[in-house]
Design goal:
The protein has helices at residues 8-12, 67-72, 99-110, 126-135; strands spanning 27-33, 36-42, 49-53, 76-80, 116-119. It has 138 residues and is of the alpha/beta class.
Amino acid sequence: MTNENIQSTELDRPMAPVPIPEQAPAKDGMAELSGTRLGYWDTGGTGEPVVFLHPASGSALIWLYQQPVFSGAGYRVIAYSRRNYYNSEPALDENPGTGSEDLHNFIEFLGLKRFHAVSSAAGAASPPIMLCPIRNAC
């Protein structure tokens, strides 16, 4: 792409915020899991489920740009906040839990048999770890 193809505002203000797109309808919920409660949102529907896993610097709220795109493509879009993050309970010293166990319990709570995972940074640690002890995949 050449500079002639870029709008002048993009060149003049390269750090200008990108407007948040209109979100697909989603319900907020609280997953009552063994040892904790995790806040989540879910667009529902019959499409293949996609679960978004946030980095250590975010929460279920960071997926504002991805949610309408995946939903518009026909997927059921779900994101939750891990322990200690927005709208979820804190990890207690006597029961800190693990990301993989919480993800497994969350998936069971939702009744999902199969799902796609989309993650960023630290969010990518839970799915592979979850598969080893629970699904005997290692």
